[in-house]
């Protein structure tokens, strides 16, 4: 199984932050995780609040852990709150099924996930998708 490289993660994060600045979004934190949910690269912009890194990590971790983008997971969590609460309380890593994270795909293989926190869920998702595209990768 392949994993997102540090070089790819840098491109994703740098470009996601550039998009956030161009759009005038609030200060962001971004976390890239590999296919096993391990941190590859996380950054918090100056002015981003304290929990932003943990939230971004929880979004990315839930996305890779459940094999789905976090927009879909947020919908599922609203439909099955008991099940998702149980996952969050037993997961070995932060688990936050809220919009703002997507899977990173190379070819047909999921190689990681990236999550953002700082804006609305739609803003968070917009910047990570743009970062992935800048790295020449795709997302789900």
From TrEMBL:
<dbReference type="InterPro" id="IPR038084">
    <property type="entry name" value="PduO/GlcC-like_sf"/>
</dbReference>
<dbReference type="Pfam" id="PF03928">
    <property type="entry name" value="HbpS-like"/>
</dbReference>
<dbReference type="InterPro" id="IPR005624">
    <property type="entry name" value="PduO/GlcC-like"/>
</dbReference>
<dbReference type="InterPro" id="IPR052517">
    <property type="entry name" value="GlcG_carb_metab_protein"/>
</dbReference>
<protein>
    <submittedName>
        <fullName>GlcG protein</fullName>
    </submittedName>
</protein>
């Amino acid at each position: 199984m392949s994993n997102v490289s540090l070089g790819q993660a840098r491109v994703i994060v740098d470009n996601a932050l550039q998009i956030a600045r161009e759009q005038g979004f609030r200060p962001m934190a971004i976390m890239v995780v590999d296919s096993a949910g391990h941190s590859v690269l996380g950054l918090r912009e100056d002015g981003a609040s304290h929990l932003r890194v943990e939230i971004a990590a929880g979004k990315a971790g839930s996305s890779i852990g459940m094999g789905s983008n976090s927009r879909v997971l947020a919908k599922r969590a609203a439909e099955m709150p008991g099940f998702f609460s149980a996952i969050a309380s037993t997961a070995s890593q932060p688990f936050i099924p809220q919009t703002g994270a997507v899977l990173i795909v190379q070819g047909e293989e999921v190689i990681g996930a990236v999550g953002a926190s700082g804006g609305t869920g739609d803003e968070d998702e917009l910047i990570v998708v743009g970062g992935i595209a800048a790295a020449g990768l795709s997302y789900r």
